[in-house]
Amino acid sequence: MPVFLDATAPEFEAAFNTLLNAKREDSPDVDSVVADIIADVRARGDQAVIDLTAKFDRITLTPQTLRITADEIAAAVAQVSPEDRDALELAAARIRAYHTRQLPDDAEWTDETGATLGWRWSAVSAAGLYVPGGLASYPSSVLMNAIPAKVAGVQRLAMVVPTPDGILNPLVLLAAHISGVDEVYRIGGAQAVAALAYGTDTIAPVDKITGPGNAFVAAAKRRVFGKVGIDMIAGPSEILIVADGDNDPDWIALDLLSQAEHDESAQSILITTDEAFGKAVADAVDKRLESLQRAHIAGPSWRDYGAIITVPDLDLAAKLTDRIAPEHLELCVADPHSLSAKITHAGAIFLGQWTPEAIGDYVGGPNHVLPTARSARFSSGLSVLDFMKRTTLAHMTPAALRAIGPAAERLARSESLEAHGLSVTARLRKLND
Amino acid sequence: MPVFLDATAPEFEAAFNTLLNAKREDSPDVDSVVADIIADVRARGDQAVIDLTAKFDRITLTPQTLRITADEIAAAVAQVSPEDRDALELAAARIRAYHTRQLPDDAEWTDETGATLGWRWSAVSAAGLYVPGGLASYPSSVLMNAIPAKVAGVQRLAMVVPTPDGILNPLVLLAAHISGVDEVYRIGGAQAVAALAYGTDTIAPVDKITGPGNAFVAAAKRRVFGKVGIDMIAGPSEILIVADGDNDPDWIALDLLSQAEHDESAQSILITTDEAFGKAVADAVDKRLESLQRAHIAGPSWRDYGAIITVPDLDLAAKLTDRIAPEHLELCVADPHSLSAKITHAGAIFLGQWTPEAIGDYVGGPNHVLPTARSARFSSGLSVLDFMKRTTLAHMTPAALRAIGPAAERLARSESLEAHGLSVTARLRKLND
Fold this sequence. Notes:
Chains A, B: This is Histidinol dehydrogenase. Chain A is an alpha/beta fold and 433 residues long. The first copy, chain A, has 17 helices and 14 strands.
C-alpha cells in the first residue's frame, strides 16, 4: 500500500518531510574497484579493456574487433521490422526538431566606451555515449543522448555498449545509426568509461561522456570528471501527477505505474483535490498490478515509495510540487497552463490528460534525461547546451582602455595584484605619451 | 627559466605533450577531514559551525552573531575610499550589463500534429556564495559570482566569508552590498559549505553553491554536490598569449606575470611567430621580476611552468591553442579577429594589444570565473545560466496523441515497458470509441 496523506492534517508536515527525504537509492560502494579498473586501462590500454570484457561480458576480443563494424551494424539493423524502424525514425525526427530550437545565439556588441564585447558558442569536439547492455539497453536513450550531441555539432560521437555473450541489440544499433553516431565499441562498465576518457591505441579519447549506467559506470564517471565533462549522475526515476477528480482513474494509475515499472526504487506520487478519486486511482493501480508484466518491479516501488496526497486546492498542490521538484510532472486538471505557471521546480511538465508521461519518453520531442532526486531545484534536463561551451570575447580600443583602465588599476591595487595593475598602467602610459 | 620550444623542431611534439600534461596542482587529501566536518554540521548545526569557527578563525560566535549585521556592513563600507567605491561600482555596472544579455529566452510553439511544445527558464530559488578569507579574499570575485546570480533572479543569495581573528574586509562587504547579496555570514571552510548545503537553525539551506576556495572548500563542494548544485572546481590560473613581433615586450611580460603572480602553480605561455621577440619578452619578465611585489610567487610559477613557443605561422599557433584550451587567451596580432575565428577551445579571448587580460578580471564585463586545466574543451565560464534551470513543456491534443501515440506504444513494447505503452493505449482506445 502506498502512503495516503491529507495535506490539511496536523501530522502532514512531518510525513511529507519523511517522503521528501526518503533515501531510495542504495548505491553499493564500488569506488575502489572502479579506481583499479581505470588505473588498469590507463596503464595497459586496449589489452586491459579486452581482458575486462572477457571477464564481465564473456567475449574474446582483439584490438581489431573492439569496434562494431559498419557491416555488422547493417546486418543487425536489417533485422528490425519496418514498423519499429518507422517508430524510431518518427521519434528521432521529433527529438531533432525540438533540440534544433535549443541552438544558442552568439552575440557581439560595441558599448559606449568603444569596447567590443560578446561571446560565441562552439561544440565539444568529441563526445562519448554510454549505453547500458542487457535489459536496460534502451534505443530511446540512444536517441535522447546522441541527437542533441549531433545537433550541437559534435564532430566525433563514439558510443560504447556492452554485448554480454556477444549479443547485439538491433534496435540500439539502429538508433545509433539514425542519430549519426560515428563509432560504436562493444565494451561497457568502468573500463569503457576509462577508455573514452583516457583513450587507448584503438579508441581516441573524448572530451565529454554522457549516458546512463549502473553503479560502476556512475562511479567511473565521477572519477573521470575533470579530465572530461560528464552529464548528471541520474538517480531512480520519479513522477508526480497533480489531478482533479475529472480524470479516468485507470489512466492515472497507468501513468504512475509507468515510472514504477522502471525500478523498485522509482517513486510515483499523486496529488489530488478529490479524495475519492485518489482512492479510485489506488484501486486501479492494484488492478493493473494483477496483470502487469513488470509487477515484480512496479509493485514494490508503489508499495514502498508511492504516495497519494489530498489537498484542498490547487494552490497548495503547486506549493507541494515545488518542494518535491519532480523529475516528471503531469498536470491533469481543467486548466493545466494556469497551474503550470504557479510551479517553478520540475524537470519536465506534461500538460493535460492527453499527455501521458510516456509520450515524453519516446516521441514528444523534449529530452527524457531529466534531473532526479529534487535536483530540478538547480539543474535541467539534457540539452544541446550540454554538448557546447561558450567563449567570452572582449576587444578594447585605446579609448575604451582610457575609460575603464583606471578602475582596473585601482581594483588590482586593492587586491595586491601588482602585475595586473601594471599591465594596464603600461598601456595607459603609452596612450598619455 | 621557462622552457623555450620551437614548434618546427623534431622533439617539439614530445615536449609540448609534457607541457600539456604537467601536473601543476598538488592537492592535499583532505577528504576524510571534510567528511567529518560535514557530518558534524549535519548533526549539531549552529553549534558545530561555532566550534569549528572558534578553532580555525579564532573567534567566538553565537547563533545570534553568525550573521554580519547590516550595521556592521554599513560601518565597514564607510571605510572604503570614494575612489575604490567608484571603481567597484563601475565594475559592477559593466558586469551587470554584460550578464543581463545572457538571460535566455523561453519558447513555445505548436507543431504540425497540434502538440504544443516548449521550455521555460527559472532561477534557482536560493544560492550560496563562498568567499575566501585572508589574502585571496577578492572583492572582484564577489561581483563575478553575485551579479550573475542576481541577474538570473535568485531571490535569496547568502554569502559566507571567514573573518580570521574577526577582521572584516570592507571592500568585500561593499562588493556584496553593491551586488545585492541578501545575507552575509562570518564563517568559512568546509563547515560553511556544509551549513549552506544542509542548513542550520540560523542559516537556511540553499540550492546551489558557487565561489572559489582552498582544498577543504573544494572537497566540501564535491561532497555536497547532488544535494545542491555547485559550480566548477577551479584549478590554478592560466594564460596563453599569441603575439607577433609587433608588440611591446614589456606589456606582454606584464600580462604573463599577471597570471603568474596568482599562484606558484599558475601557468603563463607565449606563442610567437618571432623568436627574437620571444627572447625580448623573457628578458622583460626577468627585469620585472626584479621589483615585482609578488616575485616570490610569480618567479617560481614562470620558472616551473612558463613556456615560450615559436611557430612559423599563426595557423599553427591556432592549432596549438586548441590543444592547450587555455582559460585566458590574448591575441596580440595585427588581425586578432581572423585568428580568433580559427580557434575553438578557450574560456575567454582578449583581442588585440589594448586588451590586457587584467581588464577581464575586473571591468571588462565578461565573467572572470573560467574553465581551467584544459576544461574549456567541454565547459564554459560562470554565467547567468549557472543560476537558472530549464523546464521542458509538452501538451498533447487528442489529434496529436493519435498522430504520434502509436509510435510511442511500439517503442515501449520494444523496450518491454508495458505500462508505458498501456498509458498511451488506454487513451487512444477512448479516442477510437
